[in-house]
Design a protein that fits this description.
Chain lengths: 70, 269
Amino acid sequence: MQCAKTLCQECATQWDGIWYCAACLASRRNTPAAKSRVGGWIAVVAASLVILFLSTRFMVWSGVLLAGLR
Amino acid sequence: MIRAPLSTTSVLDESAAVVRATVSPWAALLLATSIPYRFMQIVFADRLIEIGSNASQYGDLLRTTADITCATFLLALIGRAIYARACRLASESGAAPGREALRVPLTAFASYVFVASIAEAATYLLFVTGLGIAFGAILSGLAIGTMEQNTEPGIRGPLRRLARFGGNSRIVASLALVFFCAFVVALLNVAALGSAIFALASTVGGWDAARWHALLSFSNRRYVLTIIAGALFVIEPFWIAANVLLVRKAGAAQTGDDLRVWFEELQRS
């Protein structure tokens, strides 16, 4: 359930593998065209790039640390 | 279809059926996209062992290898995302999924790359503590399981879902333990298979057994690293399927879908 509310089976509708209540379905139907997702996209892409960069540095750091212990 | 209530054994049972349904061609695609990543991990570990305690003087070499490994990691994530979708479709329909498995929503994939990157970074950061691999594997499993639930781009949503499904800590920990045992068993089997192939090949005329013995022996660290990668290849489809089913079953338990199916099965019997 997207809104995390507890509903009975009759009140929930499955769409694309995810359960929605009537209010969530209505909000999905009314808002997607108007709502800008640019901020979310920028955030998720920027965060992924930064974390991937850090992961390569952590990989080298832990490798050098382990090799130094030998 | 959710067939049994959420438990470790039901997740494992159904993941075996899902892997059987998705083995061709989706598990093969998963394998093909994972090969470059595992190969680069082997190269990195091999170089590290080779340069040993002088590793701090070879920063450029190790950084370049790590950067290439990171690029191949992204390719592996594409394969995992397609395979996870194939698993979800197979669990819903009970049949082998078609080309629909390739249509991974971009939002879901971007969110998955974000969370999988966190899992990767955490694995390497905590590697020296010995907990890195376990923590990273659990995080990465939940990331692939929750991938398709991310319908909006953003960084808070995927983390919230991760925390929500990570709440089934008993089952998540049991699955990790079962798959650690499976990894050991797969390691022994892949090593035995390698030895058996070598033994059979040595009976063929013209086979340079002495040369191959040096290459395919456990004193060769590259062979040992390849065996470890082979064991990871074997368990990876099961690990992804188990996490997809865990998230699906946990979601069904929250909505009452499992009770509805159980009631329908009772009525039929």
